[in-house]
């Protein structure tokens, strides 16, 4: 009964992307997404676990133990697994607080290397900041295509949020404003990662750590040779605070991110298990909810015990991310519009979320890019196997 002049808007009914794939892409599309999404989210949770274990073992090593990574993975599991059993609204205050800290983190990772690299006072007679004695930028090539196959999956890994949209959108009061909420969020993420990447590669060059924040572990203030009061100077005591916060915060941040993604994964697993587009949470028992939350939160922690190389994890997850972020949304756009026209006879249907890119041409371009990126990124790995 919709008037074509009235934009459609999602209300209080949550459709998981798995359900949308079944509606518009059929069984084959549903199965493809049902395989891709859990694998991707599992790899995200896996990466979070390794980030925590590496950051904490690097900053606060356990005395008498050479490698305390496994101990911190155990500590991490004791924190995030119980949090994964909470519902989304119960985590709002924690998420808001950590969001403020994320902005502080971005400013630190951009400003400190820029100030050190651009400062002209690096002599022994002047107090100055340094990264383990490094005070000048290592520099980086302006253009080098050899690393693109490794870079693309990491880029996708850092900004993909498509799989979380149904769960997060459900908690938004004014759903007509969802396009602004997610659009601004994505723009901030892209801008932050881009600036951090440019400044970090310029200053650290080839010495950038896989977890870039670990480069701040040696951030310190170099006292002037003739300053006997350096120990009480503000620069001397603020440097360790900056160093500690930058190294530790990502570990604390993933404590908040892990439960959110585990909740999304458990919701996806429930939908896949029941295989019904009509399933609602009211039909699911509390025992069943706990089972799927356990199945979402524990396996990636076990995986992190055996594989801790963050680069390997992000390479794998980024490949799946191309499908989730580019291929499936494009297919859903094309086939959902075709369904509206072919079955319901509704042409030129508008929604509150349409923008300049909401058309067949852009959907085709985005989907083609996703497929091409998967093939291009897989190229070096296929050659290595041969």
Automatic annotation (TrEMBL):
The chain crosses the membrane at residues 32-49, 69-88, 100-120, 151-170, 182-204, 237-260, 291-310, 316-335, 356-382. Keywords: Membrane, Transmembrane, Transmembrane helix. It comes from the Eukaryota. This is Amino acid transporter transmembrane domain-containing protein. It comes from Proboscia inermis.
């Amino acid at each position: 009964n919709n008037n074509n002049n009235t934009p459609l808007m999602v209300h209080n009914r949550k459709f998981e992307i798995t359900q949308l794939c079944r509606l518009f892409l059929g069984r084959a599309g549903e199965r493809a997404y049902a395989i891709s999404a859990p694998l991707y989210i599992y790899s995200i949770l896996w990466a979070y676990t390794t980030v925590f274990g590496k950051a904490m073992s690097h900053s606060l090593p356990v005395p008498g133990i050479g490698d305390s990574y496994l101990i911190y993975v155990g500590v991490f599991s004791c924190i995030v697994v119980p949090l994964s059993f909470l519902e989304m609204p119960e985590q709002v205050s924690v998420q808001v607080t950590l969001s403020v800290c994320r902005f502080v983190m971005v400013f630190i990772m951009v400003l400190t290397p820029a100030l050190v690299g651009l400062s002209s006072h690096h002599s022994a007679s002047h107090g100055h900041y340094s990264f383990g004695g490094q005070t000048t930028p290592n520099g980086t090539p302006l253009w080098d295509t050899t690393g693109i196959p490794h870079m693309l999956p990491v880029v996708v890994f850092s900004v993909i949020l498509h799989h979380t949209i149904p769960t997060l959108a459900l908690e938004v009061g004014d759903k007509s404003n969802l396009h602004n909420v997610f659009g601004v969020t994505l723009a901030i993420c892209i801008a932050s990662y881009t600036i951090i990447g440019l400044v970090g590669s310029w200053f650290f060059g080839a010495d950038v750590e896989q977890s870039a924040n670990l480069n701040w572990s040696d951030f310190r203030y170099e006292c002037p040779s003739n300053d006997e009061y350096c120990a009480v100077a503000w620069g001397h005591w603020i440097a360790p605070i900056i160093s500690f916060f930058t190294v530790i915060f990502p570990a604390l941040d993933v404590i908040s991110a892990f439960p959110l993604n585990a909740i999304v994964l458990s919701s996806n697993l429930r939908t896949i298990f029941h295989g019904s587009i009509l399933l609602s949470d009211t039909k699911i028992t509390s025992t069943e909810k706990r089972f799927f939350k356990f199945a979402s939160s524990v396996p990636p922690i076990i995986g992190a015990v055996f594989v801790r190389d963050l680069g390997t994890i992000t390479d794998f997850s980024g490949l799946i991310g191309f499908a989730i972020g580019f291929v499936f949304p494009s297919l859903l756009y094309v086939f959902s519009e075709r369904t509206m026209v072919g079955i319901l006879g509704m042409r030129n249907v508008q929604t509150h979320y349409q923008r300049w890119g909401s058309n067949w041409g852009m959907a085709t371009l985005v989907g083609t890019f996703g497929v091409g990126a998967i093939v291009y990124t897989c190229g070096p790995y296929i050659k290595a196997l041969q």
